[in-house]
Amino acid sequence: MPSQLQGLNAAALSCLDSGDHSDLTIKCNDRDFKVHRMVLCPQSPFFAKAVKKHAFEEGQTGVISMNHDDPDAIEAMLQFLYTGDYNTENLTMQNHLKIYELADKVDVSALKTLCEDKFNAMARNNWKDLSFPGCMKTAYDITPPGPSGENLRSIVVKIASENVKQLFQLDTGFKQMLADVAELGADMVEFLAKSSSQSDNANSSRSDCSYLCRHCWSSFTIAVRCGFDVSCPRCGGAN
Predict the structure, then answer these.
(1) What residues form DSSP beta bridges with 231?
(2) Is there a contact between 64 and 22 (Cβ–Cβ < 8 Å)?
(3) Rounded Cα–Cα distance for residues 160 and 140 (Å)
(4) Which part of the chain is the BTB domain (predicted)?
(5) By C-alpha distance, which of 55, 51, 45 is closest to 26?
(6) Taking every pair of C-alpha atoms in the chain, what is the biggest distance, in angstroms?
């Protein structure tokens, strides 16, 4: 089955690259993408609505204008719709965010999730990069508060919070970005406060306790957390 799926993906991508059997064109400035309604419309309510007959001009002309979108993001989106993935070679963190923004526009939640995963993996290895503060701002600019954008927002908040000291020390514009995006700063404060509270609770549940081993009758003192079993350091018996 995997080999059959690979074959189907290759065939689909070949049709996208060649434009064979195309019945729809996406125009983005000087680039034309020859695509297929049967691939796009079942996966994207945006395209399904756009080509509906007698509803919009696109349904009559078979041409969808997307001049305000990024052409490279459109190419990645189409790769995903045809194969379930997109090529990440030479892509930056900002590129993944542009694809995410487009996925939100065309209402393809699976592509949004994939963008989140790819951005997260790249950002975790590149948070020291000069572009990271700008990416954090972009992530907040393209997502609304609430469930729709909370996954992407939580990614940048978690990465920034885990490395906050180094980010302040690095001259990457992080401090200015926090001043410009107050909502992001507030979310980081909340994340750090919760993390500190969890750490305090873990430490407070740990205490020095004295035991008399019921197996070898030796006494010992050990620091443990409440509710944890302990083993005698002499005989190894559980107490």
Answers:
(1) 238
(2) no
(3) 13
(4) 22-90
(5) 51
(6) 89
Backbone torsions φ then ψ of 31, nearest 5 degrees: -115, 135
By the 10 Å C-beta count (0-12 exposed, 13-18 middle, 19+ buried), 216 is classed as exposed
Residue with tokens 């609430």: 146
Q: Both ends of the chain: CA-CA distance in Å? A: 53
Q: How far apart are CA 148 and CA 96, in angstroms?
A: 17
Q: Which amino acid is at 222?
A: I
Which secondary-structure segment (H or E) carries 29? none
Q: What is the pTM of this model?
A: 0.78
Q: What is the pLDDT of residues 83-131, one digit of tens each?
A: 999 999 999 999 999 999 999 999 999 999 999 999 999 999 999 999 9
